[in-house]
Amino acid sequence: MEINSLQELYVEQLKDLYDAEHQIIKALPKMIDKAESEELKDALNEHLEVTKEQANRIEKIISDMGDKAKAEKCKGMQGVIAEGDDLIGDIEDPGVRDAAIIASAQRVEHYEMAGYGTARTYANQLGEDEAADLLQQTLDEEKEADEKLTQLASEINQEAAEGTQEEVTADVPPRTTSRTAPRKNPKRVA
Ligand code: FE
Ligand code: ZN
Ligand code: FE
């Protein structure tokens, strides 16, 4: 796509975001599957529904301009999602895995926030007021999702931290030796 004006750059950014949203719609169900915490599952599920609406919003903005909502591959989001996938797949402890799912989801949200902030500003500068409002709405939702994840992290990560400390700082002696033994990951010991 040839870009020689702010208008064209704006359209390119919208198409990039449109593809990013579709990648997220595909990725979220896998993250929900791998999550242990019901609260985390619920939060991701809720954001999945919000995300579908966000994709519709961009489609509307693009079609209102008389353009086709053909996506431009968002390589950045591809990388963010692939990295999260690799990380989450390597973790067996459910609490630590939830912490990693949150870490990965927050990177996704921040990447989106950067894109929507830019697109919203372009829309304002180009006098596309209705589009600017729609993009601001999505930006607010991404911020809200990020804050929700931060709040969940404060509980879930604490549990993950305590899960590993338990073995080291148990002030009550373990009732049986088998209680601590199975926690050891044989792969890591070798
Ligand atoms: Fe989004
Ligand atoms: Zn991109
Ligand atoms: Fe999002």
Strand residue percentage: under 5%
Structural class: mainly alpha
Q: Which stretches are poorly predicted, pLDDT < 50 over at least 5 residues?
A: 176-190
- The number of helical segments is 6
What would you say the CATH architecture is?
Up-down Bundle
**SSE ordering:** HHHHHH
Question: How is this structure best summarized?
Answer:
This protein is mainly alpha-helical. The protein is 78% helix and 0% strand.
Topology record:
Elements lengths: L5 H29 L3 H27 L10 H15 L4 H32 L3 H41 L16 H4 L1
Helix pairs in contact: 1-2, 1-3, 1-4, 2-5, 3-4, 4-5
This protein binds fe (iii) ion (2 copies) and zinc ion (ZN).
The site of one fe (iii) ion (FE) has 6 residues, from α2, α4 and α5.
